[in-house]
Design brief:
There is one protein chain. This protein is α+β, with helices and mostly antiparallel strands.
Length: about 280
């Protein structure tokens, strides 16, 4: 093949590609619109009003309505939006009633501000109807079944609240870690310690001697941030008045290098520092 022949073929390949690209682009766009309408049909076939509402309020639904050849979809979509919205609202009320009833039967104190809910301090969830998921403390449950939500919440309660807890031992342990860090840094009594550094040192203080001899992960005692927050709240709620030495725990709010914990008011806040002060007489 000579150079002129090769150039001729390449040039005409490019010419055909230039014609094909906009045509293929238009075909692809049409296929997306057709696939969208098929999705709507499937939702209608199984009365999946949750997904239907999401589809009809999407950008592609507007694209369908703007298409000249699909102009009849506009009034039809509006009728279906009204239907799906009414069904979702009915479902939402039934869902809240079922979730409240099942939580009460399980003796879980629940507060629902849909789509969010709280069960005890430190257990927070959010329901996403469109994705059929519920997140509890950022762990995703692939369900919006109230029974499964309550079951998952009970597991969190067992993990965070049902273990042994002595507020005096807890705060004395915190103070021991605080004192150790202050001595290492030659800081004055009452000086705040960064909460991230403190959390690391405190978790280390919880490990057994066997762990430091053989640091196998099976010997490591985990202590989650959720557990730390809940234990702080249980200490504050106990109202014991401080450490055995009469020192008062103080948490310092802020944003830089912070951790989300629960303060003495039971509110989840960003905490940057921790300190102990002598109890005022």
């Amino acid at each position: 093949m000579d150079i002129d022949q090769e150039s001729f073929l390449q040039e005409n390949q490019e010419n055909i590609n230039n014609i094909l690209r906009p045509f293929q682009k238009e075909l692809n766009r049409g296929q997306r619109l057709a696939d969208f309408l098929k999705q709507c049909l499937r939702c209608l076939g199984r009365d999946d009003f949750l997904q239907l509402e999401e589809l009809l309020n999407s950008k592609i639904a507007q694209n369908v309505e703007d298409e000249d050849t699909l102009s009849k979809c506009g009034p039809l979509f509006q009728t279906l939006r009204e239907y799906a919205g009414e069904q979702v609202e009915k479902y939402r009320f039934a869902f809240i009633e079922d979730l409240s009833r099942l939580a009460e039967e399980a003796e879980l104190p629940i507060e629902i501000d849909f789509p969010r809910f709280t069960i005890l301090k430190g257990i927070e969830g959010e329901i996403d109807f469109s994705k059929r998921t519920t997140s509890i403390n950022k762990k995703v449950l692939k369900s919006i079944d109230p029974r499964r939500i309550v079951t998952a919440a009970l597991r969190w309660k067992k993990q965070l609240y049902d273990g042994p807890f002595d507020p005096q031992t807890f705060v004395d342990g915190l103070y021991a870690t605080y004192t150790k860090i202050n001595k290492q840094e030659d800081a004055a009594p009452g000086h705040p310690v960064g909460i991230q550094q403190f959390y690391l040192e405190y978790v280390i203080s919880l490990q057994s001697k066997a762990f430091f001899i053989n640091m196998d992960k099976s010997k490591f005692r985990g202590y989650s941030l959720e557990q730390f927050g809940v234990d702080l709240w249980r200490y504050f709620e106990a109202g014991i008045g401080g450490t055995s030495d009469g020192m008062m725990l103080q948490l310092r709010p802020g944003r830089n290098n912070s951790l989300w914990l629960i303060d003495s008011d039971g509110e989840r806040r960003q905490i940057t520092g921790i300190s102990f002060q002598e109890r005022a007489i």
